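Predict the structure of CBS domain-containing protein.
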Amino acid sequence: MIRVDSRAGRPPSVARESPGAGPETGLGTPLSDVVGREPLFVPPTSTVADVALAMREGHHSCAVVTSRPDGIVTNGDLARIVAERRPPDTPVEQVMSSPVHALPSGAPLIRALLLMLDEGVEHVPVTRGGLIVGVITDVDLIRQQSASPLLVADRIRRAGAGGPRDPALADLSSDLAGVAAALLADGVDGLRIAAIVASLHDSLTIRMLELAQQDLGPPPGPYAWLALGSQGRMEQLLQSDQDTALAFAEHTDDAGEYFAALAERVTDGLAAAGVPRCPGGFMATNWCRRLDEWQRTFHGWLDEPDARSLLDAQVFLDLRPVAGELDIGVLDRVLARGRNRPGIQLAFAQTARRFAPRVRRFGRLRVDRLPPAELKLRGTVPIVLLGRLYGLAAGSPERTTAGRLRAAATTNLISADTADTLIDAYAALLSVRLAAELGEDVPLALSAPRRRELMGALRAVRSALQASALTHPGTG
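Done. Here is the predicted structure for CBS domain-containing protein.
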């Protein structure tokens, strides 16, 4: 029989129950206010059978393995072990996940939510002083929100009886809108909500790929499904369209035909689920190539740039693999050469400055009648373009706009204050755009403080664009 581990340094058991505060508990609440009783600790030499028995008797959905570093084993792991017909005397250290994805007790609930979505986990250990003192589960988080993104993610994983066009996915867009509205009402900023929306679209894409491969059979070789644009940056709002590509390593003569069919099915499935096709044609149906062809394409963008290739290059700077086993690191290395291409950087800077917020009489920026489309073109778009510019100039592999701006500050291309101001402005502008997508009469419906925040965000964008003329001078 397994006993709770008592190795030195473990805090005493507090047997604390989850407060179960319900939806009114905000996602800014620290994990320490939500974490339940002390978890089950087991030594790494415990057998799978003993751990399963201890979990059942203690009504635990997981056990923390006191290895170095700590590990975790869950009900899902035990089910997999049974399916694989492993012997019951298998040491738990052979089947645990380690190291664990842990968060400090002072971290807000939103961080646990993002971690679960990003890593596809259902249990997040909570630490205090470097020691695990509890575990937050997906059930704990769902209790805090009636419209939980975890419920939507679970629905996506379970769908598939009708193939990529399963009716269960037909109204996914309304579910996403409900999630976004709940998060916005809970005070979560637009940048974090956009990351959650992108994560759910990742889950949807992975499920579509699984369903398509059930019909087409296993792929003939490694491939990578790539997210571009806002999904690639993890900054996707509700009305974003598909921006995708596919790279594959050709091992057989029919590889091209297979992956073209795969791209077609997934693109159709995403459209049926409410993610519209890209009007500009940036979809895997049009951008499905062998990896060596992608290398030549990327080299061409850098070595012989023209207006069209610069547009394509900007979109592909955001590429991020969503699924597949193909290593696309070679493409990142090609793109990193843009650090030594001042001509391309200048073109990017000139493009960004074309989207500067417009000044009214006496140099004022008015927001009381600014349509939502202008908030994108004169607000979020130039910040994204500046992020791409400075990320490229810094040689940074970061894909998020915030990550690129911070990398630029680290390399002294911009000040840390400028980076923070632009990131805050980006989050505020995304929040307002999201409110408009949810049906609010923006900006007329904004409170006076929010209008002032919006005004400050647009001023920050304009100042940053003017400063870019110093680091990357030129007209455009």
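Confidence is low (pLDDT under 50) at residues 1-24.
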